[in-house]
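Subject: Interface between my chains keeps coming out wrong

I've been trying for a while to get a sensible model of this assembly. When I model each chain on its own everything looks fine, but I need the whole thing in one frame so I can look at the contacts. Pasting all components below, labels as-is. Any help appreciated, I'm running out of ideas.
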Amino acid sequence: MASITLDNVGKVYPGGTRAIGDVNIQIADGEFIVLVGPSGCGKSTLLRMVAGLETITDGEIRIGDKVVNKVEPADRDIAMVFQNYALYPHMSVRQNLAYGLKNRRTPKAEIDRRVNDAAEILQIGQFLDRKPRALSGGQRQRVAMGRAIVREPAAFLFDEPLSNLDAKLRVTMRLEIKELQKRLGTTSLYVTHDQLEAMTLADRLVVLNAGRIEQIGTPLEVYRKPASTFVAGFIGSPAMNLIDARAVPYLPGTAHAGTVGIRPEDLTVAADGPIEMQVQAVEELGAQRLVHGHTAGEAITITMPPTAPLSDTLRLTAAQDKLHLFDRQSGARIE
Amino acid sequence: MKRTIFSNQLLPWLLLAPQLAITFIFFLWPAGQAIWQSFLREDAFGIKTSFVGLANFRALVDSPEYMNSLQVTAVFAVSVTLLSMGVSLLMAVSVDRMLRSSRIYTTLLVWPYAVAPAVAGILWWFIFNPTIGVLPYALDLIGYDWNHIQNPNQAMGLVVIASAWKQISYNFLFFVAGLQAIPASLREAAAIDGAGPIRRFFDITFPLLSPTTFFLLVVNIVYAMFDTFGVIDATTEGGPAQATNIMVYKVYFDGFVGQNIGSSAAQSVVLMLLVIALTVVQFRWVEKKVEY
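Reply #2:
Try treating it as a single job with all components included. I did that and got this:
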């Protein structure tokens, strides 16, 4: 158990390309932090820097009180779950779980105890003597988790561990990971590009874009008060409508803002609504209906109950406290 | 598997004919002749040929020279295989760790494979030549006397080095491909699991490379036993005192130089059986992939 601190961390590749810049994160002991962002935003690189698989060119990473910039991965007291699980194919599940402990010269009885404990927690006891290739995707995922658990490390690092699973299994495993982390109370750093996964798992989210942090906050903070147009568009599904303020001059606060953000569920149909929407396409999701269209040349999407009446033109309204205002140049939130 | 149905019975045979003809003319026919000749004995003047049954084989078993050749072949094949595979694995692992310039390095390392065995033999013959060679001169400076023309162990050393050198490129390519097929995340996981570079190699990389290693093992033994004729002929010609007279070379020497066709044919039949045995091993295990 330990806290993790990233202090002005950056990485510049030998060619001069900057992958990561000015990253500051304080992760409390036992906290579940999710790094989320589009592909290529540097989230995996950042995780690998914490793991010690990538060099750090600027700043400092501390695990507990120890600066680990130059420490080998093995000596950082972390365990990592890889996207492709990285199970050793020539070893049985038991050997896979025990390998890290054996390398650390843990006594045999202790190894057996920890392996059996982990197997019980993850319900993989009956697979212990099988090879990884005889297991299904979900079972392999559990073994990969088990390999992290048996080590009893200071922190878990997860690199998109669910992205190789099918949609249904992903939801189940997501819940299991969350429960497991709460139960073990191990500090965790989790990388994903899936904003839903990020929202559901995180104690706090770190939204990354182009190697820099856009926002850090609890899922609801980030959802309710996105710090920039990037975060506003990235977190939430369907995505927030981002409208040029000049297209909707009648909305309050638009005079000094560049962009107005309104979540689709915050736009409601009202006969006297100020926004006139031309409907272009409708998607039926069962529980709700997505309506796509535009107003004054700006694309907007709203959600409606599936039974509500539809017409080619809808008049919409939005509560004033549901409007998000962003600066035209920087895209930063204006309070 | 896709099964093609020919309406005409003749067409499939016509399509197969060229390959069947080559197989028959260049493989089955000479092999059949060798088997037939291994049962015959020619008199000293080549006038009369008589059927002697298994006498040629019996003579081989009783011949201390043939037993010596078997032993020489075993030592030679094992040494060439170990040396060429060991060196190429080392090189492949080094290249695998390189990020840039590995491609140039790989290309350069492949060149020796394009050199014909006889040319490779002559190359090493020059380098090691006791009178004019560079290496004996250098060894002489540090007080080591190199003369493979007289020293049997040095002669063996020379043919082993020359033969192994040629095979390193081939092994290297397979090892590099094998190494690149191992996901980097496995080694990273092992690194996080507390295994150092050497430990990672023996616990993770080497076991996962075993299908490649086993394939190369068979290929290299076959190469050392059957394809090194050119190297031997260009360097030591089996000498000194039979020290490098491997089985393939002895077949040639006894048959074409010694004109003992019956014994030479019997020896090639023995070699044929060895090739068959190695092929069976190859198909039984390599085709099924060594399990890990």
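Reply #3:
Confirming on my end. The interface with chain B takes residues 51-53, 72-74, 78-80, 82-84, 86, 88-90, 99-100, 103-104, 147, 151 of chain A (CB under 8 Å).
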